[in-house]
Design brief:
The chain has helices spanning 12-18, 51-62, 68-81, 86-101, 105-118, 125-137, 148-163, 170-198, 201-214, 221-234, 238-252, 256-266, 281-291; strands spanning 31-33, 40-42. By secondary structure, the chain is mainly alpha-helical. It has a domain at 1-26 and 45-134: Serine Threonine Protein Phosphatase 5, Tetratricopeptide repeat. 63% of the residues lie in helices and 2% in strands. The protein is elongated. Strands 1-2 form a two-stranded antiparallel ribbon.
């Protein structure tokens, strides 16, 4: 992930891309008790430092290999100590970025949402929304796990595209949206294959139907149609198998899934060129849409 594009003189991006800063700060406690001698050593507290100094300390932390979380906390301190300053505004979005770098996604979302609440029209608002989406997207797990986080990622990515269509993050959000959608379709396929292996063909059909109807633009659609053919053949529903095969052939004739379907159906004397006249329901409707060029 690329950090935000910083304005001249501030921001982690400016530091990393322009290489004009090498800022180091000392973060110390306000009072330290020296063990053994009882002597109280006074050191500079954050409260006594100007906002730009704390901000620069945060940037220096962020530039280190494992300093993202400490950097985020320092950015948050700028916001706390100088809430109405321009440094606070800068620090909110930078803390969101730093927390994300530290893989503290909930904290990153909180900071990014706070930025949107305070500065919804600012030029970095699009990046704040994109960070919220990334905080979900980067947690998407394998298809064998619950996909609730994927739905949240899809919603946040959609918000990025719809609310900030002209931003530099819209195209990346759209790409990630398609990938997340593909992930959800993969989950349905995973369950459908499981049901097929167990011989629960009706349950498998329901899962493959979801892919064909709701995720038809994903990479899983050709296999879903082939699996539908297999399931319908197993149930003796040759007319529905023929229609599913015709849809597959119309849209994905060059795939190995169609080749397998063609062998399976022609071996039973079933055509893959046209939908069956006896097929009814959702498959028949999809075939009509395909034939009119209104689908896929």
């Amino acid at each position: 992930m690329q950090p935000i594009v910083g304005r001249a003189g501030w921001g982690y991006a400016g530091m990393m891309h322009m290489g004009k800063k090498a800022v180091y700060g000392i973060l110390t406690a306000s009072v330290v008790l020296v063990a053994g001698c009882g002597q109280r050593e006074q050191e500079v507290s954050l409260e006594n430092q100007p906002p730009e100094t704390i901000y620069q300390q945060a940037e220096a932390k962020l530039a280190t290999r494992k300093g993202a979380e400490d950097a985020a906390k320092l950015f948050t301190e700028v916001e706390r100590l100088y809430p109405y300053s321009d440094w606070a505004k800068r620090s909110i979005i930078m803390s969101a970025f730093a927390y994300h770098q530290a893989k503290l996604y909930e904290e990153s979302r909180g900071a990014a949402q706070r930025y949107l609440d305070f500065y919804p029209q600012d030029e970095d608002a699009a990046y704040a929304q994109y960070l919220i989406a990334l905080s979900f997207y980067d947690q998407i797990d394998d298809v064998s796990r619950d996909q609730g986080i994927t739905f949240q990622a899809l919603q946040a990515l959609r918000n990025t595209v719809e609310n900030y269509p002209d931003s530099e993050y819209a195209s990346s959000a759209l790409l990630k949206f398609d990938l997340a959608l593909d992930h959800l379709a993969g989950k349905e396929m995973d369950i459908g294959r499981f049901y097929m292996k167990k011989g629960h063909f009706g349950a498998a059909i329901n899962r493959f139907r979801v892919v064909v109807e709701d995720f038809q633009t994903t990479t899983h659609t050709p296999e879903a149609l082939h699996r539908l053919v297999e399931a319908y053949v197993s149930l003796g529903l040759d007319s529905d198998a023929q229609t599913a095969g015709a849809i597959l052939g119309y849209n994905f004739q060059g795939t190995n899934w169609y080749k397998d379907t063609h062998v399976l159906l022609t071996g039973r004397g079933i055509s893959t060129e046209e939908a069956s006249a006896d097929s009814q329901g959702w498959l028949k409707q999809i075939w009509r849409q395909v034939a009119r060029g209104e689908w896929l």
